[in-house]
Amino acid sequence: MLEVHDLTARRGHATLFSGVSFQLAAGQALALTGPNGSGKTTLLRILAGLTSPAAGTVRWRGKDVAPFAPCIRQDTLLSAHVPALKDELSAAENLSLQCALTGHRVADYDIRVALDAIGLGTAQRLPAAVLSQGQRRRIGLARLLLVRRPLWLLDEPTTALDVAGMAQLGRLLGDHLESGGVVVATTHQALDIPADRLKSLALA
Amino acid sequence: MSASGQARGENGNIKREGTPSATRAPAAPDAPVYGAWAAVRYATLRDLKLALRSRAELGVQLLFYVLVVSLFPLASSPDRVLLATMAPGILWVAALLAALLSLPRLFASDFNDGSLEQFAMSPYPLPALVSGKMLAHWLTTGLPMAVLAPLLALQYGLDSSLVIVLTLSLLIGTPILSLVGGIGAGLTLGARGGGSLLALLVLPLFVPVLIFGAGAADAVRAGLSASANFSLLGAGLLISLVGAPVAAAAAVRIALD
């Protein structure tokens, strides 16, 4: 479903990576590894269409992905390094706004159920400002639960998660791949994904 | 409403008599419609909600406007004629400065916490989302300032007919400040010293708004009609309504790249 061919990215004059190619079929995940500053996040942003590559092509479902192309925006869920939460709003309000932005009308009940499932039961009425990093991350997990998109682009999804959170993430990833989704995740830790579905790519 | 219209447009051969839901049903699963109006509504309501949560910031801005307007009669002579002559200009300059005070925050906090990235990744058109943010900005700054204007004009002993013209000019003119200012706010995203750079960038663009806005009350005082000023302000508003959201969305995309 996702084909990346000979991708090169530059930041200023420095070349971050060049000649990156991979293909992912439905139900496959890619773990992007590499030292800090090797361009993992940039690669994710290129896949999301937020940044244009210096060279190379990205194809999604056989179509070339131009930056900001609607086809990739309708199919992608990007979970960036910062969880895009408004400090003034509660966890539930944040999640409801984030879901609405993807065009999904999610009922308040479903929001509550998702936050309960993700282990934010008692904290969901608190303003996001007082939540811990791990709890903020879990709101992002709840969004993965509610918004159905075939392509997940996850930037460091394991950061700040505890053991239970990691297990939850593993289950979410497993279900998503099972239903034919595609995942690209940057990570420093091993992802809890069956080996036959997992590809990995190390950026130098 | 727009969704059914679009579905009918795509399947021109479908019978007109069909109910909207019947014609829309086949297209719905693979071609969802992400309408511009829904996006405007979403962004406006979201930003209004956020503004209501941080009411203090709003209050500071309006207080700034009130104080600046109130300082001039204290600092200059208490001559009634002089004050009444200066009033429209002072109110307009104060409104402009207060708008400038709040413009850097239009995109900056969303940019810093990653929300703007999610806006850009949303299937909704980015110019529509951006114009919703601009609308919310006007509703929380320009509109209250225009509504406060008659009260503040009392300090200057302005005739009631002039007060009406001045308030009307603010009502038509302040949306231009939010729209054009939004382009500047987008362009200065992520720049060091963005606030002062923004002022340098958009103040020259605000000059025509200031001239025609403050000029409306002057024209009426001189016994002329203010319709020319209102027409020009209205034209400016229409042009910026069409152009500013697209330009600001392009600026936001550049900032995110």
In total, how many domains does the architecture of chain A comprise?
A: 1
The sequence of SSEs of chain A as H and E is EEEHEEHEHHHEHEE
**Distance N to C terminus of chain B:** 35 Å
If classified by CATH, what would the architecture of chain A be? Answer: 3-Layer(aba) Sandwich
Low-confidence stretches of chain A: none
Beta-strand residue percentage of chain A: 25-35%
Q: What is the fourth-level CATH superfamily of chain A?
A: P-loop containing nucleotide triphosphate hydrolases
Question: Any idea what the radius of gyration of chain A is?
Answer: 17 Å
Give a short account of the largest sheet of chain A: 5 strands, parallel
Mean pLDDT of chain B: 84
* Number of spatially distinct domains of chain B: 2
Number of strands of chain B: 0
Radius of gyration of chain B: 21 Å
Briefly summarize what is shown.
The complex is a heterodimer of chains A (204) and B (257). Chain A has 204 residues and is of the alpha/beta class.
Describe this structure as you would to a colleague.
- The complex is a heterodimer of chains A (204) and B (257).
- Chain A is of the alpha/beta class and 204 residues long.
- Chain A has a single domain (2-202), classed as P-loop containing nucleotide triphosphate hydrolases (Rossmann fold, 3-Layer(aba) Sandwich), CATH 3.40.50.300.
- In chain A, 32% of the residues lie in helices and 26% in strands.
- Chain A is built from six helices and nine strands, in the order E-E-E-H-E-E-H-E-H-H-H-E-H-E-E.
- Chain A has helices spanning 40-48, 70-75, 91-101, 108-117, 133-146, 163-178, and strands spanning 2-11, 14-24, 29-33, 55-60, 63-64, 76-79, 151-155, 182-186, 198-202.
- In chain A, the strands form two sheets. In chain A, strands 6-7-8-3-9 form a five-stranded parallel beta sheet, with helices on both faces. A four-stranded antiparallel beta sheet of chain A has the order 2-1-4-5, covered by helices on one side.
- The two termini of chain A are 25 Å apart.
- Chain B is built from eleven helices and no strands.
- Chain B has helices at 2-10, 20-24, 36-53, 55-75, 80-102, 105-112, 115-121, 126-153, 160-187, 194-221, 227-256.
- In chain B, helix 8 (126-153) runs antiparallel to helix 9 (160-187), helix 9 (160-187) packs antiparallel against helix 10 and helix 9 (160-187) packs parallel to helix 11.
- The interface between A and B is medium-sized, with 29 and 23 residues.
